[in-house]
Amino acid sequence: MNSGFRQDPRSAGRPVRRGPRSSAAAIAVGAPGIGVNPAILSVVHMILFRPLDFKAAEQLGWVAKTGAEGDLFSVTKRAGDYKGWKRMNRSFEDMAGEGISCEVDGSCDS
Question: Are residues 42 and 86 in the same domain?
Fold first, then answer.
């Protein structure tokens, strides 16, 4: 039984000795894949499965205005739209805009 354990590393090392370049290439390709896999899975876990860090996350909502072509991102980032929505808001406790900076006097820049 002891001789089998000694034979396994020798058998595993034989292809490395015969073709060191191909072994190095296989290690260079495989090692980053093995290292990246846990990083990707931890990001997926954080985004999909971990609860949001808010007291009442079920009360969060997203309000957006769509353009004629249906593009949400370029149209929604207008500071004037945000200021108007915030002023006319009667349904939500409060509103906040991401990517919009507003001053104390109420002037906003997108």
Answer: no
User: Where does 1-110 show beta strands of DSSP type E?
Assistant: 101-102, 108-109
List the structure tokens of 58: 């079920």
Check: CB of residue 51 under 8 Å from CB of residue 57: yes
Cβ-count burial 77-104 (b if 16+ within 10 Å, e if not): eebebbbeebeeeeeeeeeebeebebee
Are 103 and 72 found together in one domain? yes
User: 3-state class of 49 per DSSP?
Assistant: coil
- What is the extent of the structural domain holding 18? 2-48
Whether the Cβ atoms of residue 54 and residue 61 lie closer than 8 Å to each other: no
For 56-101, the pLDDT digits (tens) are: 777 777 776 666 666 655 555 566 677 788 888 888 888 877 766 6
Claim to verify: residue 44 and residue 76 sit in the same structural domain: no
Find the length of the chain: 110
